[in-house]
C-alpha cells in the first residue's frame, strides 16, 4: 500500500497512517527521533510521544509513529496567549545553548527551560545540537498549548545530508566548489 506524504523535512518524511487518521507514520534518519522513540527525551507536554514501528537497527531510515497534530500556520491565532509568548521568546534565541546568556534570560516558565535543557543534553550525545523553531516545526493542541515537533537537530547530520543531496545534484565537482566557497567565507 502506498502511503500518502503529508510532510517532508531534511531528515524525515511524514505519511498519513493508513490505519488511523489521527496518527502519522514517520520515515526518518534523524537521531533525535530515535531519542524520542526510545525514551531518552524529556517527559514533557512540550514534545510529542514517538514510537518506533519497526525494529531493524541495520536500517539507516527507521519507521516511527506518533499522534497527528494540526499544521501551525498562524501561531498567534492558534496558540493560546501563554504559549504564544513562549513561542515568541524561543524565536528570539537563534542558536540555542542552555548555558547561553540569551537562554538563561528568557522570560519563559521554568518547566520549559528545564525541558529544553534536558532535550539539549540528550541530543548532545549524538553531536552538536541545533534548535530551530518556526511554524513548520511546531503544532498545537485544541487548548492552544505549544508542541515542539521537530525543533532539535544534529548539525553534523544536517551537513552530511546536505552534502549527499548536493552530490546527487552537482556531482563531486559541485561539492568541492561548495567546500571551497565555505572555507573562503570562514577565512573572511
Please provide a written account of the structure.
- With 188 residues, the protein is α+β, with helices and mostly antiparallel strands.
- It is built from 6 helices and 9 strands; from the N terminus they run E-E-E-H-E-E-H-H-H-H-E-E-E-E-H.
- A hairpin with a 5-residue loop joins strand 7 (138-140) and strand 8.
- The mean pLDDT is 84.
Count of distinct strands: 9
- Mean pLDDT level: 84
Strand order of the largest sheet: 1-2-3-5-4
The separation of the N and C termini measures 52 Å
Write the layout of secondary structure elements.
Elements: E1 5-8, E2 12-16, E3 23-28, H1 31-37, E4 50-52, E5 62-67, H2 75-78, H3 81-91, H4 101-104, H5 110-123, E6 129-131, E7 138-140, E8 146-148, E9 152-154, H6 155-187
Antiparallel strand pairs: 1-2, 2-3, 3-5, 4-5, 6-9, 7-8
Amino acid at each position: 500500500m502506498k502511503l500518502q506524504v503529508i510532510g517532508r523535512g531534511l531528515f524525515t518524511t511524514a505519511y498519513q497512517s493508513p490505519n488511523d487518521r489521527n496518527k502519522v507514520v514517520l520515515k526518518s534518519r534523524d537521531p533525535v527521533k530515535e531519542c524520542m522513540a526510545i525514551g531518552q527525551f524529556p517527559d514533557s507536554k512540550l514534545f510529542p510521544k514517538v514510537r518506533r514501528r519497526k525494529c531493524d537497527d541495520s536500517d539507516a531510515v527507521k519507521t516511527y509513529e506518533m499522534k497527528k497534530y494540526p499544521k501551525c500556520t498562524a501561531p498567534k491565532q492558534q496558540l493560546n496567549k501563554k504559549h504564544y509568548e513562549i513561542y515568541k521568546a524561543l524565536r528570539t534565541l537563534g542558536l540555542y545553548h542552555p548555558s547561553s546568556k540569551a537562554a538563561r534570560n528568557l522570560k519563559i516558565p521554568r518547566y520549559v527551560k528545564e525541558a529544553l535543557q534536558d532535550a539539549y543534553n540528550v541530543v548532545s550525545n549524538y553531536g552538536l545540537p541545533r534548535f530551530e523553531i518556526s511554524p513548520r516545526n511546531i503544532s498545537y493542541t485544541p487548548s492552544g498549548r505549544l508542541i515542539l515537533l521537530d525543533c532539535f537537530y544534529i548539525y553534523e547530520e544536517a551537513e552530511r545530508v546536505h552534502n549527499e543531496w548536493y552530490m546527487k545534484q552537482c556531482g563531486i565537482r559541485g561539492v568541492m566548489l561548495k567546500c571551497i566557497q565555505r572555507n573562503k567565507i570562514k577565512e573572511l
